[in-house]
Amino acid sequence: MKLGGTLVVVLAMVLSIGCGKEITDSSVPLKVGLEEEFEIVLSADQSTGYHWELLQLLDESMLRYLGKEYSAHGRSLAKPGPDGCEIWRFKTVGVGETQIIFGYLVPDGVEFSDMDSVNVYEVQITR
């Protein structure tokens, strides 16, 4: 019987992994070296119509946008539906401090609400 309980715990852990990447914490500054690539991983569910977008242009003297992808692998036992993420990739090109500001935007035709998210990431680029 103990094996059955262990199996349930392991299965729950695997199912709750979601997209397989750790969501990037916006409360912790990102410290990146010059000419390095890095990712920001944002929790997302494309089936809802919501999506992440940059709310302001990047400081191109410090950052380059390389692309983004959506991953919908896995399901969470804590909440129904897909447990996915958007993975945004950047490269540093200059030294200094800048911000990357994302908004989790509503689908067309839906009114903005207090439930919509804005994430601000502080990026510190060093040599």
Short summary:
This protein is 11% helix and 43% strand. It has 1 helix and 7 strands; from the N terminus they run αβββββββ. The chain has one domain: Immunoglobulin-like.
Task: Explain what you see.
Helix content is 11%, strand content 43%. The protein is mainly β and 127 residues long. It has a single domain, classed as Sandwich (Immunoglobulin-like), CATH 2.60.40. The strands form 2 sheets. It has a 4-stranded mixed beta sheet, with no helix packed on it. Strands 2-5-4 form a 3-stranded antiparallel beta sheet, with no helix packed on it. The radius of gyration is 17 Å and the shape is globular. The N and C termini lie far apart (56 Å).
Helical residue percent band: 10-25%
Distance between the termini: 56 Å
User: How many strands in all?
Assistant: 7
Shape: globular
Major sheet details: 4 strands, mixed
Tell me the structural class.
Answer: mainly beta
The average pLDDT score comes to: 80
Q: How many structural domains?
A: 1
Order of helices and strands: HEEEEEEE
CATH topology grouping? Immunoglobulin-like
Number of helices: 1
Rg, Å, rounded: 17 Å
Strand-residue proportion: 35-45%
CATH architecture descriptor name: Sandwich
CATH class: Mainly Beta
